[in-house]
């Protein structure tokens, strides 16, 4: 089953429109001043309407999974999937892929890093820009360097 | 019989934050499993689910010493595969009587909660002998390219839009992500985790008809296998199978005059995470919703983990089984990796020797993927003393059902 992002979807389209301009956005309750994820119309705590808010892209690697080639028919080659908790909203987790190969550098839970945007393409369908987690490593000297997509 | 109030059960059933326990009325001791039936289990077989279901139902009715015309209730899955209807039942067995019918039956969590639903129907006078059945042909469907167990997840809108496009799919990826976090928090090693698939395989090796019955598995074999969804290997993931299982539930006072040793339904629990069904957001990735279900079931049954002799846990993945053993209260959270060593889950190590025999038929990992229906049938056999891998003098049994965002708990007690 193939599911490419639907930019016109009322609940999830804004996330992907933001990603297309390399911005990470989540739904936010202004009254409670916290993120609500996944997106929905109203805050489950206070009932106020939610709005989309841009995040810095910095976060922690809550956990990850190395997916072997062939397990997921949408992404036939091996890749690494991650759950990322943004610094502004440590209680939520955003699903994304890892920006670089984990074989090069060891991963560990709760390691800090930042989101950059990489093109993903499923076995069928057009490529799209998606957030991907890039861990900071001790030898990184320019972790805030602007990286071009791809 | 005096029944406990919801308030008194709720006071006794302390559940942690991050989810809720469904408020189930006290039905302790009202009903019992009086008959069990199974088809052969297999890989792709071309068998039709409805035919398999009817075969399992016929076996369960005969096992209970009843005739099809004695059955006045039918419970099936409302969610999975192509299940039988009341008309299918009447046509196949040539009966005419109306059937109380419920789609809150089947397997997964419903293999546990159907005991509560059925007992409630009996207490309300809606039915006397109720059959619960579950059939699945996912092995055949997957081989034919007409369906996979991931279909529901890929079809749910927010998962389809925010998980599938990132590659967080199918289920092995979810549970590998949680297993990795568990390893990080509690130091679980791959060798410790291997105990789950290795023990369940040994059980399957001793259980006639188990899909992996003839295939041995050593620790060396396991460690040499590549990750499928790291840290999980294929041996950590459930089979995909064809087959069916069914059981008859009857009022306990009737069960006393029926041929089989009754498995009395003493407690049922049902819990779910906050924010269900989105497991990526569950508060504790290292626990299952069993933490919200088990306390209610123990409170209803007025029992505790120390009084349980044998368990069957929903083992879609080895790590999920490990977490549910903890979440049922058999050891502290995080101690599971060391707790399950030294044959503690094997049928030859009973409670009085410090064990807690688990998935003695081989589970979803090595018996078959009947989504928990075979687990309940196996527990009934243990209480009757007729299991292929027997647990000595098993008097109380617990089934832990699971759908990822929800869990159920079913406590059974030997009736004679």
Question: Describe it for me?
Answer:
- The complex is a heterodimer of chains A (150) and B (416).
- With 150 residues, chain A is mainly beta.
- Chain A has one domain (13-135).
- Chain A has 1 helix and 8 strands; from the N terminus they run αββββββββ.
- In chain A, the strands form 2 sheets. A 5-stranded mixed β-barrel of chain A has the order 4-5-6-8-7.
- In chain A, a hairpin with a 7-residue loop joins β5 (79-86) and β6.
- Chain A is globular, with a radius of gyration of 16 Å.
- In chain B, the strands form 2 sheets. In chain B, strands 1, 2, 3, 4, 5, 8, 9, 10, 11 and 12 form a 10-stranded mixed β-sheet that branches.
- Helix content of chain B is 35%, strand content 17%.
- Chain B has 2 domains: 31-142 and 241-249, Thiolase/Chalcone synthase (Peroxisomal Thiolase, Chain A, domain 1, 3-Layer(aba) Sandwich); 150-239 and 267-411, Peroxisomal Thiolase, Chain A, domain 1 (3-Layer(aba) Sandwich).
- The model of chain B has no long low-confidence stretch (mean pLDDT 97).
- The two termini of chain B are 19 Å apart.
- Chain B is of the alpha+beta class.
- The longest helix of chain B is centred in the middle third of the chain and has 16 residues, at 171-186.
- Chain B contains 16 helices and 12 strands.
- In chain B, β11 and β12 form a beta hairpin.
- Chain B has helices spanning 6-12, 49-63, 86-93, 110-123, 138-144, 151-155, 157-162, 171-186, 190-205, 219-224, 252-255, 290-301, 318-327, 336-339, 363-366, 373-384; strands at 19-21, 31-38, 73-75, 100-102, 130-137, 227-230, 232-233, 242-251, 263-273, 310-313, 396-402, 406-414.
- The radius of gyration of chain B is 20 Å and the shape is globular.
- The chains are: A mainly beta (150), B alpha+beta (416).
- Chains A and B meet through β4, β5 and β6 of A and α6, α7, α8 and β6 of B.
